[in-house]
Backbone:
């Protein structure tokens, strides 16, 4: 989704980054999340820039919108970051582009520490886009970290041993509905459903 719009000199440009073109889903192109777009150019940018889908024109990650530091362009961090509002809650969303990006990046870890003081930070680990058990982690302001994998949540509190619990029934049901929808969408993208 690089090189979206003409930008003034003061604004950032995507440059050689095209990470969101790999990480995000583009329904208009039947492109699943986590898969390179066929129109991505090796040097960054889009081969169909003039006619790219509306979602590509509209999308601005947090860095492109002026957040984070200049050196935090997503291809340098190995993850794309967004501020998301879900219900009454605003959170920092991090989507890894490759496995271990968080562990490999002291800067990404510092960003998590900075933001968790004021909002939840949710990180979806890189992995198969169609894996319903793809893990995610949530850091909360009070030092609590939750890690969810499948139907299980591990909660780590400062100074305490990790606690592993099965998700509540409502969350398990909501999760199963979400997985069913995702599978249906993927089967349609495959043309097999
Ligand atoms: S169409 Fe262009 S901007 Fe959109 S995902 Fe593909 S390469 Fe990126
Ligand atoms: S991840 Fe951000 S900086 Fe990189 S191409 Fe997408 S919008 Fe541009």
Residues:
């Amino acid at each position: 989704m690089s090189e979206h719009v003409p930008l003034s000199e003061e604004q950032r440009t995507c440059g050689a980054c095209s990470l969101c073109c790999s990480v995000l889903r583009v329904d208009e192109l039947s492109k699943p999340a986590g898969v390179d777009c066929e129109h991505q150019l090796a040097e960054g940018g889009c081969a169909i820039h003039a006619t790219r889908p509306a979602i590509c024109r509209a999308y601005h990650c947090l860095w492109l919108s002026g957040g984070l530091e200049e050196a935090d362009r997503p291809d340098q961090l190995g993850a794309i970051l967004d501020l998301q509002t879900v219900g009454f809650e605003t959170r920092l969303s991090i989507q890894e582009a490759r496995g271990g990006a968080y562990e490999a990046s002291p800067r990404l870890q510092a960003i998590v520490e900075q933001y968790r003081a004021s909002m939840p930070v949710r990180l979806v680990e890189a992995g198969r886009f169609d894996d319903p058990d793809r893990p995610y982690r949530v850091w909360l302001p009070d030092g609590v970290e939750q890690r969810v994998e499948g139907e299980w949540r591990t909660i780590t509190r400062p100074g305490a041993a990790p606690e592993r619990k099965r998700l509540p029934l409502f969350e398990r049901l909501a999760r199963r509905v979400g997985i069913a929808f995702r599978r249906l969408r993927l089967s349609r993208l495959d043309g097999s459903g």
About this structure: The helical segments are 19-23, 54-58, 74-77, 101-104, 106-116, 169-190.
